Amino acid sequence: MHPSVHAKANPDKPAIIMGASGETISYAELDRRSNQVAQLVRSKGIKVGETIAVCMENHPWYFGVTWGAQRAGLHYVCVSSRLTAPEIAYILEDSGAKLLIGSAYLSHTLDEVARLVPGIAQLRFDGPGALSAEDALAAQPVTPIADERAGVDMLYSSGTTGKPKGVKIPLPEDPDIAQMNSLVGLANMAFGIQPGAIYLSPAPLYHAAPLRWCMTVHKLGGTVVVMERFEPEAALQMIEKYKVTDSQWVPTHFVRMLKLPDDVRAKYDVSSLKCAIHAAAPCPVPVKHAMIDWWGPVLYEYYAGTEGNGFTFITSQEWLERPGSVGRALTGIVRVCDENGDEVPRGTEGQIFFEPAEDTVPFEYHNDPVKTAESRNKHGWTSLGDVGYQDEEGYVFLTDRKSFMIISGGVNIYPQEIENLLVLHPKVADAAVIGAPDPDFGERVVAVVQPANMAEAGPDLADELTAYLRPQLSGVKMPRQIDFREQLPRELTGKLYKRLLRDEYKAAYEAAQAAQ
Predict the structure, then answer these.
(1) Residue 494 has pLDDT above 80, yes or no
(2) Which of the residues 113, 156, 175, 422 could staple to 149 if both were Cys, CB 3.0 to 4.6 A apart?
(3) DSSP single-letter state for residue 170
(4) Which residues contact 225 (CB under 8 A, 6 or more apart)?
(5) How would residue 159 be classed by pLDDT, with cut points 50, 70 and 90?
(6) In this protein, which residues make up the domain named AMP-dependent synthetase/ligase (predicted)?
């Protein structure tokens, strides 16, 4: 299905409700907006198969833009609104974007982007003059373009070099904009999301999961309640107010809601919830137990990636029998392999691969054939780089994460980019960036620095390095802690034993927790 189909059948039904403001966009209005966006990109000469980018906060027009790009046959790149201007400019150039649609909320950053990549046109919602997206769209027809065909997102996932890499899949073979896809089937059959769903999305829409799940709910004809920003009590208020039936979270959301005073948690009715999906980061076993005790057995977990190469799934009941598991495969076949790419016995740890299902669309990392090749083994199975094992019944348990990626509050942070910046500082001889355990965010970014002169190590140098990094990194990537060492644990070949550092910080955290 497609929002345009629901616009004909139920034109006044809310497609989107902005949680804080209460602004409501009906299916008829969403259809009109997406048609205007499609007309706009055609008027600018943007053709089927080309690319536009979206960089704005959770905005009432967000889905008007993405559905407009989808029905115009485009690749649409949803860029984090928390990135710096150089980071955004890199993604625009790498993706080949012909247009950037943003908002006045990010004017300062987007002005700098315009200086860095002056050849990429911009429009901004809530912005004045020639950049006004509202004015540009108001001039467009609200009818479909003549050459509608289905487009698809192109989302960026950082790689081992630290630079973000676009996960690019071909446009769907079937050009029908209302075609079904695997996520619609999963949402309906596995998670039980129905056309009458009231779906709460508390996370930034530029992330893969919120974007794709919300658009899937639109395909099914449900209503998406978008939180402009997550606040734990506000989330509970919205569940009660809108009688939310379905939702999607990351473990940090659970932690923050569980830390609310008992009387605050108790005063909101969450009994309407039938499905609370979570993924993106490992959920501590005690946290998930507490959430099931509070909300009931409505938590559903999955393991998957932006790459779309496979999907595991587990219900609350199954998880209570196997705490810590991320479930069994629903799409693809899980293969746990050794360093040679050969499958290992059940219960043995190894790298997790998916043998693709017949209908799996192959992905590639845009402009990075080496990384694309590294994601495959000799059998053609693909991996996100995670390590774990399967039990005898095929349930997957993750024991490590790809290339020591840091997951802080459900956001993926890749250390190499930060390390590359640190080693350029004249007072730094070597640097390693790791994720250290954090009770609120799962992990926090820690930089372990080998100074050029150990006598300079201390708070003043830490402050200097922080000031040096801040203009070059978005806030979520900034180290929360900078420590100094005379020598980092490197092999003579230059390989950094980052695992030793991670284990050290983990052991220190566990000892501190035990001492409390």
Answers:
(1) no
(2) 175
(3) P
(4) 17, 19, 198, 199, 200, 201, 238, 242, 244
(5) very low
(6) 6-354
In a 3-state reduction of DSSP, which class is residue 475? Answer: helix
Tokens of 194: 């129905």
Query: How far, in Å, CA of 170 to CA of 174, rounded?
Result: 11
Q: In 3-state terms, what secondary structure has residue 369? A: helix
Q: How confident is the model at residue 60, as a pLDDT?
A: 97
Give CATH for domain 407-515. Answer: 3.30.300.30
Q: Which two tokens stand for residue 299?
A: 């938590």
Q: Percentage of residues in the chain with pLDDT exceeding 90?
A: 70
Banded model confidence at residue 358, pLDDT cuts 50, 70, 90: confident
In 217-331, DSSP assigns E strands to 223-226, 246-249, 275-278, 299-303, 311-314, 328-331
Note whether 454 and 486 are within 8 A (CB).
yes
Overall pTM > 0.70: yes
Using DSSP bridges, classify how beta strands 364-365 and 411-413 pair: parallel, antiparallel or unpaired.
unpaired
Q: Which of 63-77, 103-117, 139-153, 488-502 has the lowest mean pLDDT?
A: 488-502
Residues of the chain with CATH 3.30.300.30: 407-515
Q: Which two tokens stand for residue 161?
A: 């070099």
- Rounded Cα distance, 295 and 274, in Å: 9
SS3 34: helix
Residues in a beta bridge with 352:
336
Question: What is the tens place of the pLDDT at every residue in 236-263?
Answer: 999 999 999 999 998 888 888 998 999 9
Say if domain 22-176 classifies as CATH 3.40.309.10. Answer: no
Residue 104 to residue 57: CA distance in whole angstroms:
10
Kindly report the length of the chain. 516
Q: Tell me how crowded residue 94 is: count the other CB atoms within 10 A of its CB.
A: 17
Element (H, E) at 437: strand 428-438
Closest C-alpha to 50, from 11, 19, 96 = 96
Beta strands 411-413 and 428-438 are unpaired
Does the structure show a pLDDT above 70 at 140? yes
Tell me the β-bridge partners of 434.
446
